[in-house]
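Trying the structure run again after the queue cleared.
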Amino acid sequence: MAEGKQGWTALLMLICVCITVGTVIPVGYAFGVVNAPYAFIRSWIMESALTRYSSRLGDSQMTIMMSAVVSIFLIGGMLGAPFAPIFSARLGRRGILTLSGLLLLVSCICQLFCRMANSIEMLLLGRLIAGLAAALVYATQPMYLVELAPAELSGSVGVFTCIGITGGIVLGQVFSFDFLLGTEKLWPYALSGSAIFVLIGLAPIFWFPESPRFLMSQGRREKARVTLMRLRRDEGRVNAEMAEFEVTSEAERKRVTMKEVLCNSRLKLPLIIVCSFHFVQQMSGISSIWFYSIEIFTQSGFTAAVAMWLNFSLGLLNFMSSLLGPWLMKSFNRRLMMTISCLFSAIFLTLLVVGLKLMLTIREFSFACIAFLSLYIITFNMGLGPIPYFIGSEIFETPSRPSAMAFGSFFNWLANFVLSMIFPTVNSAIGPFVFLLCVVFCAYGFLLTCRYLPETRNRDTKDVALLMENGFKSKIK
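Done. Tokens:
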């Protein structure tokens, strides 16, 4: 690693904020915007099917249609993930984020005019395209920021993905409130509101530099040096980093495909870690919490309107706790934060199960459940929330990094889709015990971290990669 420490610069902070606003916040927005206008969208679909196809949809058919509206975004994410390394190699990190922004704008246009065109297909297409764009964002945005930042800030910039997702969910909830755009007439504007953030955030993207590591992998040495000087403003630091790039540049010029990553035994363990962390992040139940919290609040005696505001408060807590990420990742080791996050997430989810069962007979336990939910959200954002997004950039070297990040993105979307499909059914069958399934995955994340994740903070990726090249026989340090 290059000698000397370097803190934040104005340019690096501007890039992190703008890229997050323009690409990641719209992804979180897509998660959070659908819930409030759900009834209006359902009513419009029923009316549109009747007028366009002379077909009156029954309750079961409407349930399928609304499930499609929600889940097609996740399907788009799974379909888009494999294309991330292909586009990344041809367009570069900045280019693929620009493409993502364009796809997000097309998605917003489809959703904005779907009601005017009386087209259910436009709504579904818009959600599908948003999912495709989100997959590219998940695989590229953290990698781009980590490759722009000095090594000692890799974790701090990596958590901007988590900040953007949580912030986008809150903004989606705000835009879809009935006193703003969540009305029978304005819900298409709510669904397409993320276009504002795309236009604002990505407006200066062509002024931002391309990743110097990517430039070196393309043989553009002088351009990489100019970019580093612009980012670091320290000639000594630039010389040291360029020397590091020179050592690995020959190997980095050959892109490693997803198939090659999958078949390389030396990359087996880091690939399992990246995919597992993404899978555990979603299977820990964070998405399902937002649906279950409404029921907890209403059973606590609050009205439905107040329960919605309390649910929004949990979303705000989720966002606020994610803001601690840059400081936590800069100050504490990855292994420590991930083990604490997995362990205490499992503990608070277990307590939540106990509280939900006792709440049926002792009403006061409902308030304990609110506390357990809040504590779970805080501990989730200590490690499970941010680390999966950037850990691939810290354990994979440049040639295999895009493919590895794409695998992680795919498993993130897969877990989100699986949980959204099975959670309602399992919840109907066994009630609050469904969260014990989430506890199992948190426990798996805890054990995987303790046994196999090497510490990556302030370490060069090539040194970390050597620690894992023997697979499950590796001695982790």
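The chain has two domains: 1-253, 255-477. Worth checking whether this holds up in the mutant runs.
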